[in-house]
Amino acid sequence: MDSCLIATTKTAKFACQRPPLFKMIEVDHVICDSLHLFLRITDRLLLLLVSECRRQDGLNTIKQIKENNVHMMKLQKLLKDNNIFFSWKTDDNGHIIYPELRGPEKVKLYSILNVPKLLPKFKYASKVQVIWDQFHQITELLRNETFSKTEIKNLENKIRTWFGNFLEVYQTRSVTPYIHILVHHVVNMIKMHGSLTHYCQQERMN
User: pTM (2 decimals)?
Assistant: First the structure.
């Protein structure tokens, strides 16, 4: 608890706003699950991609959805052609609803996604592709069993570059808690405790 007392003091290490839920666990003993990190950030990237497909199609009302869904259908076809089940519908407010992809489907998505082809008129299509590719590279690095000082620095630089690109395209309100953890805490976790794979409670996806 000593490291998490007052966020504004010079002695506070982790700038906590509130005490931890389990006070007997020091904040520097909290480690994220690397698999959950991958899954949840991929969820956010996919949501942002779907939102842009929706915007490109001008899908603001239920009536428009029935008449103009070119990009949404292109995305659905891309996934279907690669044996990824993806269907979508709208609720009463015209919001698009789609099922969450399974873990192996999310892994496959990184190898088949071509954002410039999917959204040829989107100003940031190439940048979004870079964001997907860079995050995939980061998650592959996080699978390492050990890290040298050079490798940790390389990982840190890649995360910073990725986040910089993310903020060039998306607003800060698109940043999720898991993205915050990746950018501000993952490298410190590795420095203190080694590879996050040692603490992953789920089976690796190959």
Answer: 0.84
